[in-house]
Amino acid sequence: MQTTRRKSSILTTVLSLIVIFIAWLLLAPTQLGGQVSYVIVDGNSMEKGFHLGDLVLIRKASTYQIGDAVTYQNAELGRYVFHRIVNLNLDHFQLKGDNNTWFDSYQPNQAEIVGKLWVHIPKLGKAIEWLRQPINLAIAIALLGGSLMSNMLIQPAKQGKSKNTTVRNSGGIPEMALYIFGFLALAFLGLSVIGFTHSVTRIADDIPYQQDGTFFYSATGAPDVYDTNVVHSGEPIFPKLTCFLNVGFAYNLQSDQLQNISGKHQFYARVLDEQSGWQRTLPMTAETAFVGSSYMTMATLDVCQVEALVSLVEQETGLHQNTYTLEIVPHVDMIATIDGNPIYDSFEPSLAFRFDKVHFYLAADTTQAETLHTTKQGLINNSNLQANSLSFLGLKPEVGTVRTIALLGLGLSLSGLLVVGFHLYSTAQSNPQALIQLKYGALLMDVKERVTEPLSPAIDVRRIEDLAKIAERQNTVILHMTLGLMDIYLVQSNGMTYRYAISNDSRAVVEVAPLVHQEILQYMLRNDVKTVIDSKPTQEVIYQDAHPVNWNKTPNAEPPEKVVMRYSMNVSRTHSKS
Predict the structure, then answer these.
(1) Which CATH number fits domain 207-380: 2.40.50, 2.40.160, 2.60.40, 2.60.290?
(2) Contact call for residues 372 and 353 (beta carbons, < 8 A)
(3) What is the domain class of 28-153 according to CATH?
(4) Sign of the CA dihedral with 413 first, then 418, 419, and 420 last
(5) What is the distance, to the nearest Å, from the Cα of residue 308 to the centroid of all Cα atoms in its chain?
(6) What is the Cα–Cα distance from 500 to 498, expressed in whole angstroms?
(7) CA distance 9 to 166
(8) Nearest in space to 7 (alpha carbons), one of 446, 461, 468, 479
(9) pTM score > 0.85 for this model?
(10) 183 in Cβ contact with 14 (< 8 Å)
(11) Which terminus of the chain is less hemmed in, N or C, by CB atoms within 10 Å?
């Protein structure tokens, strides 16, 4: 009903703000500093679980595991892809669509993953795509605007307002403070729930490291064949011009947290025929120890000896191939420590040449830089604990700090509620009018002591709560007026007046009998009756009025200076000794 809505408008506003605040925490998009990305499924690669036009909500996570359905940015395709993690490759993730039989060619790292699946809403994406069409969006806006305008134009048939009526302030500063502290208490309570549902500490992120290896080679060349008299990395080697190939390898371990790095390395060559599976290993250096995060080694290989070895194999076995493969392989065993715990890893890149009866040349299909440079990335499980944090509007406060702020804010807001509540309770105890104003301020309407229509037969109620129920049931307001020592509350409906009276003077006790004479109350309401001159035990109350009337209704009677009204309203006054 209208009065009920008016009464609860402030509470509704506060609750709406709380709901909006919580919804923002949960659903704010990443573009506005939130944690949620909205993705519409485009394709059938994730069927049967996800279909074309489904909407999925993606949230950022600190770690991702095998089985997580994630959205990542595919640099090769130049678009976002929603697939499932099926394998971990050091600090990269291998993904595949649930409906695909092949793996994604692109393997993103954690920074390229937008987030993992949080909420799945089937078919909602189709509605969003429909609204993206300009004509459809215009139709939706027009319909929404028409609905709002129609609601604004609908008015009640009869308001029942008087020119002399004024609306009372519904609550004042104490009530507003009550709502504010209540809102803050609920907000900090929600923050407490968020803080205490997250662990203060979490396992620290895995420690990344990277092993880099760079090959380089040279040989003596002929100026008539090459630009210079030296063969450089990337150029072919002709055994007819030189038999000796100088091969070098530079190793570097990149990590900010690994300590006491050392290890051993060895250089060797491997000659093989990929088609038959034959191979032969030729040591180039002995196993050598190193200390530190980097080293460089060089060795010389006799390519003429490699050709002689292949010729011998062909002669002894009858194997005849047009080309063979020569691999230069450095084997590295690395040892390091982190927080006193040992870490072991190996690194074995290779530099591959193809060769025939004439020359040796790089065998890789990739660029020369990628052929000569090899990288291997690794992750070390970190068992240490670190402070957990939350992400909110671009900020990342620690969970412990969030808990402290939430508890402190909750305590202060609850204290404010207690203080304001105690103040309101004390005021209500000392002044019943304040309690009525607090509870039913939105239903009350102040009126002057005269009305435009004669009063109908009255029914007195014993409690203001009963009068409020009648007002709400009849969809009307409670009229309030002050008459002498009394505050009178009225509800007029269907030819009947419902009334509740209470004293506004702490020294007077007012009792209203079940049936008050209507002519007396009409007189007090129609005329400017304001001041009680005297009260007598004989139930005679003398009022002074600027415009008294003759209650005997004698024709042409002169107005008396004072009017004595006898009615069934008992008024007694007590005087203090002071």
Answers:
(1) 2.60.40
(2) no
(3) mainly beta
(4) positive
(5) 71
(6) 7
(7) 19
(8) 468
(9) no
(10) yes
(11) C
